Amino acid sequence: MTTSPLLTDLYQLTMAAGYWKCGKAEQEAVFHLFFRKLPFSSGYAIAAGLGDVVKWLQGFRFSTAELEYLATLPGRDGKPLFDRGFLDYLGTLEWRCDVDAIPEGTVVFPHEPLLRIRGPLVQAQLAETALLNMINFQTLIATKSARVCLAAQGEQVLEFGLRRAQGPEGAVMASRAAFIGGCSATSNVLAGMTHGIPVRGTHAHSWVMSFETELEAFDAYAEALPNNCVFLVDTYDTLEGVRHAVEVGKRLRARGHELNGVRLDSGDLAWLSIEARRILDEGGFPNAFIVASNDLDENLIESLKHQGAKISVWGVGTQMVTGGAQPALGGVYKLGAIRNEAGEWEPKIKLSENAVKVSNPGIQQVRRFILNGEFRGDAIYDEEHGCAEPVEIMHPTDPTRSKVIEAGSSHEDLLQPVFKGGKLVAALPTLPQIQDRCRQQLTHLHATVKRLQHPHAYPAGVERTLHERKLQLIQKAKS
Question: Where is each Nicotinate/nicotinamide phosphoribosyltransferase domain found (predicted)?
């Protein structure tokens, strides 16, 4: 992945030039990265992308070539857009901000800051676009993966989306995020090498079509790769293909190997899998698994299981790595506070006629409350003021809705230190550890929050005293 600071929108650099010109570049500020709406009409999302954020921030510096490129950019009058003194200043920059983040694999909800950036205004501003790029996409895909894996009810889900992914880097990020959400393997070999994800795959229809007969093709494949025999059986006639797989499987077994399974890639997957299971069992291969592919998603998998499909491995491609009908998460990055000349933190708020777009002010933290092993609610609060007891959560956009946290609940604060003064202070978990965290997190959510259709709304909102200060800032701004 690229670590260039030019992975940004031009307006980040023009604002940075403005901050430098008016003496605000080193003013301390706090930004929060969050999303406003859950993807896929889901009841939750899965935080992902922090690992790549860390790599990008560790490489945050402008090279000579990058500065020379910026020097060529023209303003509207044809003269250089950027002052040479500003470009020299950029050449001295190294990352010096604090970063607090919700760990990858955590279940998260709208308006909760996934990242909190605190440090010099110009640096925090320059990080915005790249951080949104990495967190938005991977959180979207990890959430999709978690939904698909829940629909599969513990059966293996393989990510098969490389050829449909959004470019090479997007494909690797998608494989990483899909693994976090619960996929057991990927077809993407580069993702396997880069991130240590198990890789899976056998052959395509072209293999079968390159031989005179399907039986000859299966025999040749079994001879070449006897320890990887999952035959794609729908090139000509699916059930006849299963019978050919059984025939070749018997010859494999005689040589000390085993038929691993068959793959269905078209047709009525429910009916074909039931018939394929019968043929495999009668042929002496009750342990051979049936893989299904063909534009699957969580809703189709749930439907196939309701129909009694005998599928035990699910290959999900396009819908997994692109997000399907929802191509983006829609995360944003907003200023929450700035330190004034008196050295005090001054909360900042963005107003909008659309209530969902009014930002939360202050230096935010997310406190999660737990009772009897179940997540019971999340409160966004201001670290400068804390949570008032008893804790009352106000709905982010509807002030008539609130929830008081039950007595006896334990709690944890979700934002954890990652960088201090630009130095990495966190021991980053391995990808399998992140996947395990995701799995464990989902066990603490009530089943109604996890259902695919019309999930119950998990109580996540703004702590009451922060909500009151927010209303005061709104009134002050309007007056």
Answer: 156-322
Contact 24, 386 (CB under 8 A): no
Label the pairing between strands 107-108 and 45-46.
antiparallel
Render pLDDT for 64-83 as a digit per residue (tens, 0 to 9). Answer: 999 999 999 999 999 999 99
Residue 144 one-letter amino acid? K
- Does the structural domain 142-322 have CATH classification 3.20.20.70? yes
What is d(CA 337, CA 165) in angstroms, rounded to the nearest whole number? Answer: 38
Amino acid 444: pLDDT: 98
> What are 116's two structure tokens?
């909190």
Q: Which residues contact 16 (CB under 8 A, 6 or more apart)?
A: 25, 86, 90, 122, 125, 126
Closest CA to 328 of 59, 40, 5: 40
Residue at token pair 């190997």 = 257
103, 180 in Cβ contact below 8 A? Answer: no
pLDDT tens digit sequence for 358-383: 999 999 999 999 999 999 999 999 99
Q: How far apart are CA 470 and CA 474, in angstroms?
A: 6
Q: Per 3-state DSSP, what percentage of the chain is helix, strand, and coil (rounded to 5)?
A: 40, 20, 40
How many Å apart are CA 348 and CA 121, to the nearest integer?
A: 14
* Residue type at 73 in one-letter notation: L
CATH 3.80.30.20 fits 18-57+96-138+331-478, yes or no: no
DSSP state of 80: B
Q: What is the pLDDT of residues 277-288, one digit of tens each?
A: 999 999 999 999
Contact 261, 249 (CB under 8 A): no
More confident residue, 222 or 479: 222
Are 25 and 89 contacting, i.e. CB atoms less than 8 angstroms apart? yes
Interval 291-314: pLDDT, tens: 999 999 999 999 999 999 999 999
CA separation, residue 388 to residues 32, 72, 349, 381, 413 (Å): 22, 54, 21, 9, 15
Write down the pLDDT at residue 374: 97
- C-alpha 159/C-alpha 365 separation (Å) is 34
Kindly report, as residue ranges, where domains of CATH 3.20.20.70 are found in the chain: 142-322
Q: Which two tokens stand for residue 407?
A: 């007595």
- pLDDT reported for residue 477: 86
Location of each CATH 3.20.140.10 domain in the chain: 18-57+96-138+331-478
**H/E segment holding residue 418:** strand 416-420
Inform me whether the pLDDT recorded for 242 exceeds 80: yes
CA 126 to CA 13: how far, in whole Å? 7
Residue identified by tokens 């967190």 is: 135
So what's the pLDDT on residue 418?
98
User: pTM, whole model, 2 decimals?
Assistant: 0.97
**Distance in angstroms (rounded) separating the CA atoms of residues 7 and 30:** 21
